[in-house]
Amino acid sequence: MTVTTPPPDPARTPLTASGAHGEPRREPDGAYLDHAATTPMSAAALAAFVAEAQRTGNASSLHSAGRTSRRAVEEARETLAKSLGARPSEVIFTSGGTESDNLAIKGIFWGRRAQDPRRTRILVSAVEHHAVLDPAFWLAGHAGADIVLLPVDREGRLDLAALRAELAAHAAETALISVMWANNEVGTLQPVRDVVRAARPYGIPVHTDAVQAVGQAEVDFTESGVDAMTITGHKLGGPVGVGALLAKRDLALDAVIHGGGQERGVRSGTLDVASIAAFGVAVRHAVDCVPDRAARLSALRDDLVARVRAVAPSAVLRGADPASDDRLPGNAHFTFPGAEGDSLLYLLDSAGVQASTGSACQAGVPQPSHVLLAMGVPETEARGALRFTLGATSTEADVDRLVAALPQVVARAQAAGLVSGRAMGGMA
Amino acid sequence: MRVLAAMSGGVDSAVAAALAVEAGHDVVGVHMALSRNRDQFRTGSRGCCSIEDAGDARRAADVLGIPYYVWDLSERFEDTVVADFLSEYEAGRTPNPCVRCNEHIKFEALLDKATALGFDAVATGHYAQIESREVALPGGGRRTVRELHRSPNDAKDQSYVLAVAGPERLARAMFPLGGFASKDEVRAEAARRGLSVSAKPDSYDICFVADGDTRGFLQSRLGSRPGSVVDVSGAVVGEHDGAYAFTVGQRRGLALGRPAADGKARYVVDVQPATNTVVVGPAELLSVDRIAGEKALWFDGVLPPVEPSPSLPNPLVEPVETPAAVVPSADEWFDAEVQVRAHGAPVPARVRSIARPAGAYGDGIPDGERPASAADGSDPSAPAMEIELTGAPLRGVAPGQSVVVYSGTRVLGQATVSRAWRAPAPR
To answer: Which UniProt keywords apply (chain A) (predicted)?
Structure first.
């Protein structure tokens, strides 16, 4: 038998991520203007991921391999907590934003109702993501919840008077309130602190989905006063498949996923050490960068808005005034009268520009956005929506490419809209 | 060329898209969503319209490396195909929704939107061939005519349901499977390319009718309307829940309490919506040798000139100068074959095109009995068609069906049957 040299042990061979430390990975080819869908992972996060993924160890094990993994998880927890103004014990790692929202809505509803069966009302803004709306409506169908959709104004901002009136009339029956930090479609920042102020006298817990906000706006869990906050990795330079729910220790929160009792029994399941380590690195980097990035992205976004309006005068900007402080710096959202969003999307994609209609699909069929409808946009106009979102890797060249393609794209899409008769009502 | 591949999620359209890609075209896959509530459509993997089918189409597009979109044509589908299906049955006629889908959805809504978005052609997985042929013009010169021909695969041939699209629209269509002689070959092509739909069963039923229960679907949409079943003498022989659910030639589902006096099987021979009456009679009454068609349409170079529509740019068709008459002009009888159902055999016939008011037919049929005339609100001067079968009579030709005129493999024209009858005198 021949003696062969054993192959190199991958665990001992350090892998280096491409690009300099701290630089993000390459984004998709062409002009990628869909950072709100997902944004490139930072090189530092990728390096942390690779380093941990090469190690073997279950963070719940007591032996040395387990302890090493546990340490990586707890360091990430501390990093993340510090960056977001929370205590480490308030961080519950999950698989991402959707799971965190499900845990918040269902867990708080069940916890609060166990304390007092009269508390069946769930108050959510009408512009929440489906990850909040759908668990709420599921509870309505399966657990006797009553859902109250709180109205928003024409810019997508919560109607605080409606919230206060609702609380004045039904506080005793209210289980929780969920209002997002920033809207994923039109980028409008919500008055979360005012929601907390309105809810506090009644002792009603407030959840906020902040997946779009962290890394683009200042977000501080404790200072905001909310009881629970959803965050996710892949919107801020971390990996897909990891997120967290920040939850106050005194919050009544039932588990949704049961099992081995990890994450203080609220979220069982073996911890994804590599993703969590990368998540911690990504959150710290994203939060540290907020002041600079917000300034840079706002300027780039304002340029994008001005140039889109110049080449496509029929475009209608939706959401809060970019000049105000009420809009995510990387968000621009338009409706194009007479055009259908998926036609615009296809034509832009052909021209190497990747954007989004911003709204959900049902089996691939674009639906008029519930966010725009809640803002009072007529359905025909809502069909012509297009969202452009900027991120760490966005440049002026991306905007140039969009602006160069847009006039013909809009003209073609409007011609197709005329033929299909679907978007005609939106013609001026 | 920029080609839109209509992808149903079945094997045929997936291979058609693959062939378009391999021919060097710039291809985008589009799946048509035809119902808002797709869970109400037939589930399983047999059709074109379920969520599973949309997923299969997406997967095939991914394998081919082409962009994939879902276009919501559900409103148009409901307003045209489903509405026509209901109103035709309500009027005592027998619609073919696949024909109407080709007419209004695939080769109108889809094609027009594709054209507006800059596509040069729409590729589908239909079994039929489009052939270009040079013809001499009477005044000298030549031009290209586009012809629709049968597939060499007789069992799968779909020229019958495609004819309604007409020459102008089919000139912007592409049928990459047109030359395939068998479905097995198509499945083999799918398997060779790693398309997971290669073994997917064929679809047969009407996609928007769950479980193939047409009567149940009609009842759910049109409601219960009890009425009488009578024999040809007018005697009541049974009851029904709605005359709309019956179609001429039907035998099953009549639920007649008493057998006929002569003991023979009875068939639906007429549906009279005005009185909500179903008439039954012996099989002989179903035999016809005369067919009148409305909404007649003739292919390029066959009969009267086909003017290209100025509103639609058509990169595949050269400018038409003068039509080249291939068969005699309007009003003259010519010999051809006709087919009256999707999987029927063609039968020999004499055919002529007519475009003139009712009363001028010269066949002894009173105007009032000719549904092709203004009696049903249609334009009496609209193009129509008359057919005399020259071989054996046909059974069960119902108003509403399509009749397609062939010369060998070539489609000459098509119409919707407005009336079918037996010539009064023996021939």
So the answer is: Iron, Iron-sulfur, Metal-binding, Pyridoxal phosphate, Transferase
* Residue A349 touches chain B, beta carbons under 8 Å: yes
- Pair of tokens at residue B223: 């409601």
pLDDT for res A165: 98
User: B353, B302 in Cβ contact below 8 A?
Assistant: no
| C-alpha to C-alpha distance for B32 and B37, rounded to whole angstroms | 13
CATH code for the part of the protein at B287-421: 2.40.30.10
- Residues A277, A307, single domain; the answer is no
Q: Tell me the range of A205-219, A348-362, B134-148, B217-231 where mean pLDDT is highest.
A: A205-219
Residue reference for tokens 């989905």: A209
Judge: B70–A361 Cβ closer than 8 Å, yes or no. Answer: yes
Q: Are residues A264 and A370 both part of a single domain?
A: no
Which one of A233, A265, A284 terminates a domain? A284
Interatomic CA distance for residues B115 and B219, integer angstroms: 38
Is the minimum CB–CB distance between A411 and chain B shorter than 8 Å?
no
Identify from B72, B74, B107 which residue to disrupt to test chain A contact, counting A C-beta atoms within 10 A and taking the largest count. B72
The CA R_g of chain A, rounded to the nearest whole Å, is 23
Share of chain B above pLDDT 90, in %: 48
Q: Compute the average pLDDT of residues A347-372.
A: 86
Amino acid letter for position B12: D
pLDDT per residue as tens digits for the range B131-158: 887 776 666 677 777 889 999 988 899 9
Range of the domain at A338: 290-423
> Which residues on chain A are in Cβ contact (under 8 Å) with B76?
420-421
Q: Which residues of B are catalytic?
A: 101, 207
Decide if A412 and B118 are in contact by the 8 Å CB cutoff.
yes
Residues of A in contact with B75 (CB under 8 A): 422
B117 and A366 within 8 Å at the Cβ level: the answer is: no
Closest CA relative to residue A191, chosen from A175, A173, A206? A206
Cα(A404)–Cα(B69) distance, rounded to whole angstroms?
A: 24
Q: Do B113 and A420 touch (CB under 8 A)?
A: yes
- Distance (Å, whole) CA B397 – CA B421: 9
The answer to whether the beta carbons of residues B198 and B205 sit under 8 Å apart is no
Residue B242 — φ and ψ, nearest 5°? 160, 115
Which chain B residues are within 8 Å of A415, Cβ to Cβ?
Answer: 116-117
Q: What is the mean pLDDT of residues B115-140?
A: 87
Is A217 in the same domain as A346? no
Identify which of A402, A406, A385, A388 has the alpha carbon closest to the alpha carbon of residue A339. A385
Residue whose C-alpha is closest to residue A397's, from A117, A51, A38, A32: A32
Contact B116 A342 (CB under 8 A): no
Amino acid at A320: A
Q: Does A347 touch chain B (CB under 8 A)?
A: yes
Q: Are A211 and A256 in contact (CB under 8 A)?
A: no
Cβ atoms of residues A114 and A254 within 8 Å: yes
Q: How far apart are CA B60 and CA B190, in angstroms?
A: 10
- In this structure, chain B runs to a length of 427
The pTM assigned to this predicted structure is 0.83
Residues of chain A found within 8 Å of residue B71, distances taken between Cβ atoms: 342
Q: What is the CA radius of gyration of chain B?
A: 22
Element of type H or E holding A314: none
Q: Give the residue extent of every domain in chain B.
A: 2-125+176-211, 223-285, 287-421
- Closest C-alpha among A276, A347, A255 to residue A95: A276
CB B350 within 8 A of CB B335: yes
Residues of chain A with Cβ-Cβ distance to B116 below 8 Å are: 412, 415-416, 418-419
Spell out a b/e string for B157-189, using b for 16 or more CB atoms within 10 Å of the CB, else e. bbbbbbbbbbbbbbbbbbbbbbebeebeebbeb
Top-level CATH class of B2-125+176-211? alpha beta
Tokens of B392: 């054996």
Chain-chain contact of A412 with B112 (C-beta, under 8 angstroms): no
